[in-house]
Every structure is written in structure tokens, then in C-alpha cells.
Design goal:
One of its GO terms (molecular function) is ATP binding. The chain is built from six helices and nine strands; from the N terminus they run H-E-H-H-E-H-E-E-E-E-E-E-H-H-E. By secondary structure, the protein is α+β, with helices and mostly antiparallel strands. The strands form three sheets. A four-stranded antiparallel beta sheet has the order 4-3-8-9, with no helix packed on it. Strands 6-5-7 form a three-stranded antiparallel beta sheet, with no helix packed on it. The relative contact order is 0.14.
Length: about 220
């Protein structure tokens, strides 16, 4: 609103991030489909912004066909340029539900402080990050069955291949750009420790489909 009052050339873009485990978990809790959950909370978000008299030039959603085309186009470009690689990771799988379990679908005992209701990604008592396979006495949140550890193939963004070019770009950007001290510190620590390949696929149903044979059951 300030920028518009100043008659600056302003484009205000926002939207709702509707994919991921949080949506699936909420859908199970409320007895709705993931799409119904997204439609419900998108409307709530829009009403709140209107109440605050906040208006956007564009308010989007990640579940639209346009968003899917853009995401899959980026994926195909990365694949064509050799920036994606395959690897196998150990994951918890619920044989009763016949699915690999994302972090939010697992609960168990924290391996660090023994808190009995730790999530598959973090313990809310001691605050430590957790790899789901490290949980003691893990349980599937959907059926309360005991999951087993099994391998799953995934695609990774090959960040080490980009490290040298990224460092060169960062040096120029730091010299000419307006980086905060905190942003510089975090970025330097990542570069200093060496970039690691980052997994970009998930064993979920709700998400942008992976447009590659052998991975079409993932998002």
C-alpha cells in the first residue's frame, strides 16, 4: 500500500502453497480430500486478506494446471542439463497402508531425549531434528501400525556440480547486492561446509507429478 501511495511501479504477488505432507495430514484429521482442504483454507486466507484491506495484483495457488506446467518444465530443463541424479534412501514404510511414510506421518520415541511423541522430522520437547528411521518404537500416524525400513529410489538436485559457478556468482552479488549480514552468514556456512545433493522427490500422492518413467508414483 505504501508503494502504491508513492505511485511506484508495484507488483504485489502472493498465493497459497497447497502441496506437501501438512495438507495430507490436515485432510486426514478433518475427513476431507486434500483438494477440499486446499479449497477451504484458500477461501479463509482470501477472506482474511480482504478484511485487512490487503489486495494483490495476483493471488495464485500451487495446485493449478499452470503451476504444474511451470514446475515440470523446470524439472525437464534440469534433467536435460544433467543436474539431476538418482540415489536410494532408507525410509519407513507402512505395509498395512501400503505406502512409504513422509516425516509427518510418523511418530515415535525421540532417540535423544526419549520423548514418546516425537515427530518423524523433529522432537518438540528437545527441539532436535530427527531422521524418521532413527525414531525408537515408530508408529504410522494413519493406522498406528509398526512401519519397517525399506529402500526407495529418489531424484536429487546435484548441487555439488553447481558449487563452483555459484561461488563465483555469490562473490559478485555480495560486492554489488544488498545482502543482510544474516543472509551472508548462512550462505557462507553452506558453501564452506560443501554443498550436498538435495532430494527433490517424495513418496506422496499429493503434489506435482514427476514427469519421468520410474518415478511417476512420486511427486
Amino acid at each position: 500500500r505504501y508503494c502504491r501511495l508513492r505511485n511506484w511501479n508495484t507488483l504485489y504477488v502472493c498465493g497459497t502453497d497447497e502441496y506437501g505432507t501438512a495438507t495430507e495430514t490436515k485432510a486426514v484429521e478433518e475427513g476431507l480430500t486434500p483438494q477440499e482442504i486446499c479449497d477451504k483454507y484458500n477461501a479463509i486466507h482470501a477472506d482474511i486478506y480482504r478484511w485487512f484491506n490487503i489486495s494483490f495484483d495476483f493471488f495464485g495457488r500451487t495446485t493449478t494446471p499452470c503451476q504444474t506446467r511451470i514446475a515440470q518444465d523446470i524439472f525437464q530443463r534440469l534433467l536435460a542439463r544433467g543436474f539431476l541424479l538418482e540415489d536410494t534412501v532408507e525410509q519407513l514404510r507402512c505395509e498395512d497402508c501400503q505406502r512409504f511414510l513422509a516425516d509427518r506421518f510418523v511418530e515415535g520415541t525421540c532417540p535423544f531425549c526419549s520423548y514418546e511423541e516425537a515427530r518423524g522430522d523433529q522432537c518438540d520437547k528437545c527441539g532436535k531434528l530427527i531422521n524418521a528411521v532413527e525414531l525408537k518404537k515408530p508408529q504410522c500416524k494413519l493406522c498406528r501400525g509398526v512401519p519397517v525400513v525399506k529402500p526407495s529410489r529418489h531424484l536429487f538436485l546435484d548441487l555439488p556440480k553447481l558449487e563452483e559457478r555459484l561461488e563465483s556468482w555469490l562473490e559478485k552479488s555480495w560486492a554489488t547486492g544488498d545482502w543482510t549480514a544474516n543472509a551472508r552468514y548462512i550462505t557462507r556456512s553452506w558453501i564452506r561446509d560443501g554443498l550436498k545433493a538435495r532430494c527433490i522427490t517424495r513418496d506422496l500422492k499429493w503434489g506435482t507429478p514427476v514427469p519421468l518413467d520410474g518415478f511417476r508414483d512420486k511427486v
